[in-house]
Automatic annotation (TrEMBL):
The protein's name in its UniProt record: Inositol-1-monophosphatase
Top-level class of the enzyme under EC nomenclature: hydrolase
Lineage, opening ranks: Bacteria, Bacillati, Actinomycetota, Actinomycetes, Micrococcales
Protein's UniProt keywords contain Oxidoreductase: no
Domain of life: Bacteria
Organism: Pseudoclavibacter endophyticus
Listed PANTHER family: INOSITOL MONOPHOSPHATASE, INOSITOL-1-MONOPHOSPHATASE-RELATED
Length: 328
């Protein structure tokens, strides 16, 4: 499947606003880089299927690595935003493997990962990577963790309108599941098409969220949740944002929202959810900012999208600020 990146960005405008202004009038690089913008007229044809295949190949290799390290035993290598926000040696090894393999397979592409510094793009493509989404699950032996790899054009910053995702893979090695999507090409799980649920009543919906690693933030989030918890069939907290988005995509969840997510958390899963028919809503590609100033990622089955947004608005009202402390 051959498509020009500039044509895709124009198509995305109808769903997400003026992405082209951000992708090309500024810079097609990673944050903090200063390379000049790529001229959209000079961009080569982009094979979205090839991008997805590359992401899948590398994600499967990373999955083998993290599973092997899990069998050998996992220990905390460092902490980040708080004492409970952990990094394992496997996170670092996985990101190093992904970064090196993408550089081999697609030299010149940029890189934006959770654990290492960004690299600028000379091709207009940037890879946004979470080497292990759900690190705490991984540490404890819960199988709900994944490798997320997304190819984007634009700047994968905290402002989602600054980039557009072209292709994505979320691979959950312990679950034996691999989710794949290309922009405009639909979404699959293990090569079978997936669709969001057909639920139309909030009271019949299964909803998931995530919580901050910061204790004070977590208390505020729990308080906001307590105000709406009785409006759904039930609630879940599964600990991996990318997989929560994929769960909405395949109908295992009817809705998911979380404040404090970062591009590596949601770039891949958001495309997969949207291509399954889910509504990824809010500012830009489904991300506003909650009233504490963090990004808010929302994905729902289409039949409850409007009512869900209205319900969460009082506790998670949009603001103009970006993210502060990351969540899992």
């Amino acid at each position: 499947m051959q498509m020009r990146a500039r044509g895709l960005v124009r198509r995305e405008q109808g769903r997400r606003g003026d992405i082209a202004r951000h992708c090309y009038a500024r810079r097609v690089t990673c944050p903090r880089e200063t390379e000049p913008a790529a001229d959209p007229a000079s961009l080569p044809a982009v094979d979205l299927a090839e991008l997805a295949a590359t992401a899948r190949t590398v994600a499967l290799e990373a999955g083998e690595l993290v599973m092997r390290r899990r069998r050998e035993g996992v220990a905390v290598a460092a902490t980040k935003s708080s004492a409970v926000d952990v990094v394992t040696a496997a996170d670092r090894e996985s990101e190093a493997l992904i970064r090196d393999r993408l550089a081999e397979l697609r030299p010149g592409d940029g890189f934006y990962g959770e654990e290492t510094d960004p690299a600028a793009s000379s091709t207009g493509i940037v890879w946004v990577v979470d080497p292990i989404d759900g690190t705490v699950n991984y540490l404890y032996g819960f199988p709900n963790y994944a490798i997320s790899i997304a190819a984007v054009v634009g700047e994968p910053s905290s402002e989602p309108a600054a980039y557009a995702t072209l292709a994505a893979v979320v691979h959950a090695p312990a679950l034996g599941e691999t989710y794949t999507a290309t922009a405009g090409g639909g979404a699959t799980r293990n090569d079978e098409p997936i669709r969001a649920s057909s639920v139309t009543e909030l009271g019949q919906s299964l909803v998931a969220t995530g919580f901050s690693y910061d204790a004070a933030d977590r208390r505020r989030q729990a308080s906001a949740w307590a105000q709406i918890a009785g409006e759904f069939r039930d609630l879940r907290r599964m600990g991996a944002a990318a997989l929560d988005l994929c769960a909405v995509a395949c109908g295992r969840l009817d809705a998911y929202f979380e404040s404090g997510t970062w591009p590596w958390d949601h770039a891949g899963g958001a495309l997969i959810a949207r291509e399954s028919g889910a509504v990824v809503s809010g500012r830009g590609v489904g991300h506003g900012a909650d009233r504490e100033g963090r990004t808010l990622t929302v994905a729902t089955a289409p039949g409850i999208a409007d009512s869900f947004r209205r319900l969460i608005a009082p506790g998670f009202a949009p603001a103009d600020e970006g993210p502060r402390a990351p969540t899992q």
